[in-house]
From TrEMBL:
<dbReference type="InterPro" id="IPR001048">
    <property type="entry name" value="Asp/Glu/Uridylate_kinase"/>
</dbReference>
<dbReference type="InterPro" id="IPR002912">
    <property type="entry name" value="ACT_dom"/>
</dbReference>
<keyword id="KW-0457">Lysine biosynthesis</keyword>
<dbReference type="InterPro" id="IPR005106">
    <property type="entry name" value="Asp/hSer_DH_NAD-bd"/>
</dbReference>
<keyword id="KW-0521">NADP</keyword>
<dbReference type="GO" id="GO:0009089">
    <property type="term" value="P:lysine biosynthetic process via diaminopimelate"/>
</dbReference>
<keyword id="KW-0547">Nucleotide-binding</keyword>
<protein>
    <recommendedName>
        <fullName>Bifunctional aspartokinase/homoserine dehydrogenase</fullName>
        <ecNumber>2.7.2.4</ecNumber>
        <ecNumber>1.1.1.3</ecNumber>
    </recommendedName>
</protein>
<comment type="function">
    <text>Bifunctional aspartate kinase and homoserine dehydrogenase that catalyzes the first and the third steps toward the synthesis of lysine, methionine and threonine from aspartate.</text>
</comment>
<keyword id="KW-0028">Amino-acid biosynthesis</keyword>
<comment type="subunit">
    <text>Homotetramer.</text>
</comment>
<keyword id="KW-0479">Metal-binding</keyword>
<dbReference type="GO" id="GO:0050661">
    <property type="term" value="F:NADP binding"/>
</dbReference>
<dbReference type="InterPro" id="IPR045865">
    <property type="entry name" value="ACT-like_dom_sf"/>
</dbReference>
<comment type="pathway">
    <text>Amino-acid biosynthesis; L-threonine biosynthesis; L-threonine from L-aspartate: step 3/5.</text>
</comment>
<keyword id="KW-0511">Multifunctional enzyme</keyword>
<keyword id="KW-0915">Sodium</keyword>
């Protein structure tokens, strides 16, 4: 005989009941079936809420009416599908049960509390309705069946709402059960009775446990748990994209996984089936052909080390500490005795080796009670300061790594903890089972989902993610999006999932939890969006969607966003930017940015602030790391001025050259930003600071292309109209230089600890002579590179190269790229 258990997820509506009937019919034909049923989906939750509402004196009638609709709705739908279905019987049954319930709720409302025996009765209502429906379904097709009343056969002890089966007593009771081999046995899950004959429940989600009890009592060949997923995965498949189905688990592995939160199986289930060596198969009602996961004594040959990750939420940790604990025999036992006497289960314990503190986690619902009991038990020690006030910390979760083979593998714990640190998860406590079958970390609840995802990524998947948020979608930002759209598929083939989840400009913010389709009209969607950029908004989004590697890409030139980088990193984002404003703000801010990046384990990447896509910062950093020292630097750092000065020597006037540069998109939107020398000065400052020179923007000596006597105020158009006033002076300068075989170049220089930006005259023997047409050239003279400099040369402006540089920085936020 087989025991088949169907959970609420398999009994959500009439269609699902019919599906279950089909599965049972097949199983019964093959080997004889005993069926354990849960309440229809959501019914136990509704009953629990009804009790709560009544106990708080609230109005519960609306919810009661809804519950009635759900139950009678299933019956009515089945009536339409099955000939000879006894709807009347069921409606009377439901009517009678709900009327009892209404009386009980009225009493609870009056008392303002629900005694546990009453709550147990109420909570089990759904299971009874469920088995009666199913029994009528079988009867309608003339399938003989027999209802088993667990309140007669299943003996349990302990809490009314979380009882533990007395297996020996239950097996004895079942010896009295009479049935024929033709009968399909049907038992409501979740219910048992205690020694006093009162109805009790086996704890929420406890129908799995009922199935295991029944399987043991009937000496079944197999216990099948039918649910809404294909089996046990290495992480909750509804939370972790890419979770992998496990073929086999040992009883112990299944126990640890479920104990630490894998809801697919109630942890108590394993006891009876392991004891009686009954194999257990987890199957999917919605996909019966899938082989499922086998839980038995056999281990998997495919998965030999870590099997899975689970997490448990709503926990509270207590810390009992103080000098009184040291060496005092029996303190630990007193703590645990108090807790266990109150029927509070301890989920995890850690003790510091100095014996100075003991920490343990319990379910938060029991926290207030535990606190009061501990304070009472240790009143004397607390008064005499042998113990420190007992600490209690709420909103915690436990994340656990489980697998029999873990004890044979080294480095798993290290990988586990480094994954958590990658997700910036603060570890509150650590515990490892003595069997070395599991490692657990206590963490903050709000980080639990993210933590599971990252740990899963590091243990089971080669897939790495980058979760991008772009601020500023003008020339460079727009180009970057195009490049990302083009590369996404290719990256995915290399196991990198780069998704853009947010795009913002100064007025709107577009967020999409599925990732923005960059081939679609995101511009229109952005304009329609009523949200605006805010760090809190993004942080909330990241949290809700459990994103593990969020990056803010600032493609604005705004100092407003740049000033927020510290907050952005503190909120958990890496920062990638071509925006020069943050690195050229005060030295104090510059230092705080780096300190924050270090402290928050976030990347702050700005390669494109100097030389656009050219690898300037990276190489400079590498030299400095290797102990090199900058002695002198000279370079053409502005693509637009490289272009304009090149055109001057070809005979164009300053105003014409500027106009052409502007038309080709080589200049900033306002060409004065280039011509004033400010842009070059900022780049020079970034380089100087990178080389370890402490200075401010104001310390840089700037010779502007626009002389002091020239009035450069007004609109861009007005400025462009006035610019020809300078043509003559520049023509003369160019001609003078040409007489000596020289050309004019706009140069940034670091020498003797000073920075200068100026118009230089260079001859053909100098490297900068040939640099024009938008090219950049940077000559770095250092201890290692002398007398010949380290030279970097190439296009230093333009949306495509800059965006490609930003893209490269974005890729460096991948954990395995960070060492680069
Ligand atoms: P039922 O109503 O059938 O008892 P549950 O909702 O109690 O179903 O359990 C099934 C759910 O367990 C799945 O939908 C899944 O979201 C969750 N779950 C959590 N961890 C795991 C895991 N490791 N493998 C499979 N499912 C899991
Ligand atoms: N119906 C009960 C619950 O929801 C038992 C179960 O479904 O396992 O907790
Ligand atoms: Mg369940």
């Amino acid at each position: 005989m087989k025991v088949l258990k169907f959970g609420g997820s398999s009994l959500a509506d009439a269609k699902r009941y019919l599906n279950v009937q089909k599965i049972v019919a097949e199983a019964h034909q093959q080997s004889g079936a005993a069926v354990v049923l849960s309440a229809p989906k959501g019914v136990t939750n509704a009953l629990s809420l009804l009790v709560e509402q009544a106990a708080e004196g609230q109005d519960y009638l609306e919810l009661l009416a809804k519950l009635k609709m759900t139950l009678t709705g299933i019956v009515a739908d089945l009536d339409n599908s099955i000939d000879g279905f006894n709807t009347e019987y069921l409606n009377t049954f439901i009517e009678q049960k709900l009327s009892e319930l209404e009386h009980q709720l009225a009493g609870i409302k009056l008392l303002r509390c629900s005694p546990d025996p009453v709550t147990a009765q109420i909570l089990s209502l759904g299971e009874y309705v469920s088995v009666n429906i199913f029994s009528q379904m079988l009867s309608a097709v003339s399938q003989s069946n027999k209802l088993i009343e667990p309140a007669t056969y299943v003996v349990a002890e302990g809490d009314y709402l979380d009882s533990l089966a007395d297996m020996d007593a239950s097996i004895e009771e079942f010896k009295h059960l009479k049935y024929s081999d033709d009968d399909v046995l049907i038992m409501p899950g979740f219910v048992a009775h205690n020694a006093g004959g009162e109805k009790v429940t086996l704890g929420r989600n406890g129908s799995d446990y009922s199935a295991a009890i029944l399987a043991a009592c009937l000496k079944a060949d197999c216990c099948e748990i039918w649910t809404d997923v294909d089996g046990v995965y290495n992480a909750d498949p509804n939370q972790v994209e890419g979770a992998v189905l496990l073929d086999k688990l040992t009883y112990q592995e299944a126990m640890e996984l479920s104990y630490f939160g894998a809801k697919v199986l109630h942890p108590k289930t394993i006891g009876p089936i392991a004891q009686h060596h009954i194999p257990c198969l987890i199957k999917n009602t919605l996909n019966p052909v899938a082989p499922g996961t086998l839980i038995s004594n056999e281990s998997s040959e495919i998965w030999t080390s870590v099997k899975g990750i689970s997490h448990l939420e709503n926990l509270t940790m207590f810390n009992v500490a103080g000098p009184g604990l040291k060496g005092m025999v029996g303190m630990a036992s007193r703590i645990f005795k108090v807790i266990s006497n109150a029927n509070i289960s301890i989920v995890l314990i850690t003790q510091s080796s100095s014996e100075y503190s003991i920490s343990f986690c319990i379910h938060s619902k029991d926290a207030q009670r535990a606190q009061a009991l501990l304070n009472q038990e240790f009143e004397l020690e607390l008064v005499n300061q042998l113990l420190e006030p007992i600490e209690m910390r709420d909103d915690l979760a436990i994340i656990s790594l489980v697998g029999d083979g873990m004890r044979k593998h080294q480095g798993l714990a290290a990988r586990f903890f480094s994954s958590l640190s990658q997700a910036r998860v603060n570890i509150v406590a650590i515990a490892q089972g003595s069997s070395e079958r599991s490692i657990s970390a206590v963490i903050e609840s709000r980080k639990a989902k993210e933590a599971v995802k990252v740990v899963h990524q590091n243990f089971f998947s080669d897939m790495h993610t980058i979760d991008a948020f772009l601020v500023g979608c003008g020339t460079v930002g727009g180009e970057l999006l195009k490049q990302i759209a083009k590369q996404q598929e290719l990256l995915l083939k290399r196991n990198i999932r780069l998704r853009v989840y947010g795009i913002a400009n100064s007025k709107h913010l577009l967020l999409d939890a599925a990732g923005i389709d960059l081939n679609d009209d995101w511009k229109a969607r952005l304009v329609e969006s009523e949200q605006r950029f805010s760090i809190q908004g993004l942080q909330q989004f990241v949290q809700t969607n459990s994103l593990v590697n969020p990056v803010v890409i600032d493609c604005t030139t705004s100092h407003v966003i740049a000033e927020q980088y510290i907050e952005i990193m503190l909120a958990g984002f890496h920062v990638v930017t071509p925006n020069k404003k943050s690195n050229t703000s005060s030295m104090a801010f510059y230092n705080s940015l780096r300190e924050t990046a270090l402290a928050t384990n976030r990347q702050f990447l700005y390669e494109t602030t100097v030389g656009a896509g050219l690898p300037v910062i990276e190489n400079l950093q590498k030299l400095i790391y290797a102990g090199d020292k900058l002695s002198r630097f000279e370079g053409i750092l502005s693509g637009s001025l490289s272009f304009i000065f090149g055109k001057l020597e070809e005979g164009l006037s300053l105003s014409e050259a500027t106009k052409v540069a502007r038309q080709n998109g080589f200049t900033e939107p306002d060409p004065r930003d280039d011509l004033s020398g400010m842009d070059v000065a900022r780049k020079l400052l970034i380089m100087a600071r990178e080389a370890g020179i402490k200075m401010e923007l104001k310390d840089i000596e700037i010779e502007s292309v626009l002389p002091d006597y020239f009035d450069s105020t007004g609109s861009i158009d007005e400025f462009m109209q006035k610019l020809p006033q300078l043509d003559k002076a520049f023509q003369d300068k160019v001609a003078n230089a040409a007489k000596d075989g020289q050309v004019l170049r706009y140069v940034g220089q670091i020498a003797d600890g000073k920075c200068r930006v100026f118009i230089d005259k260079v001859d053909s023997s100098q490297p900068l002579y040939v640099i024009k047409d938008g090219e950049n050239a940077l000559a770095i003279y250092s201890h290692y590179y002398q007398p010949l400099p380290f030279v970097i040369r190439g296009y230093g402006a333009g949306a495509a190269v800059t965006a490609a540089g930003v893209f490269a920085d974005v890729m460096r936020t991948l954990p395995w790229k960070q060492e680069l």
